[in-house]
Target: RNA polymerase sigma factor SigF
Amino acid sequence: MNSDPVSETAGGAPGTARSAAVEATRRRSAELFGVLRDESASQAERDVARDDLVHLHLPLVEHCARRFRNRGEPYEDLVQVGTIGLIKSVDRFDTDRGVEFSTYATPTIIGEIKRYFRDKGWAIRVPRRLQELRMQITASTAELTQSLGRSPTPRELAEAIGCSVEDVVEGLESSNAYATLSLDATDDDSDRGGGQSMLDAIGIDDEALEHVEIRESVKPLLENLPPREKRILLLRFFKNMTQSQIAEEIGVSQMHVSRLLSRTLEQLRQSLEAEA
Model:
């Protein structure tokens, strides 16, 4: 069974009571989607079912929004933005997909919130060109780090992106304009006497938790890959091996590993887009 984010939003009820609440939410969700997709139902009945689905899954939106608290944007605004993603998910969800609605909806909700941060979350207004360049630099840095086995230089980034070194430097400096927050700021429990400052609570994000919804969506697609391609993905993304190390491991050239990796990732990306 897929990991279900609804189980994380069922409140503090322990053990059996929590499981029962999650199961009740699933049953109710299935009933409402049945009405929403029933062509014989009246438009009024389908509208009510749609509204009920949105309200039923609002705890999922709140759960996703809490991951982005204390990053310079009001929590209430993040919930509103995430709700837009929830509504889109309700309208697009296909009950024949064989996955839980929460597993399907989570990436869309997270995507809406991240898009909001890209557009609004700047302490100093930065031109769209630099925002997009910053995202290109981030993506190219990850790719070059894999192929080179080290962090790329600004010149290598410039050649990969197709811009000047000065543009790369400007793009890197624009990151400093992203929304800032005082380390003395406290969380939402501060008015009840239980809040901590950001300096007290600062830590490192759990990357595995951040990507759990993507991993669950990709899992069935990975099962259909040929053994060699599946092994290359395992070595690269689960054992953190470089392309050169993978080439030595499976007995092919680094360039061949790069082509296989690019082709496999593109195939997975197209499959995900086709399902969406």
Summary: DSSP finds 14 helices and no strands in the chain. Residues 7-13, 189-193 have pLDDT under 50 and may be disordered. Residues 209 and 215 are 10 Å apart (CA to CA).
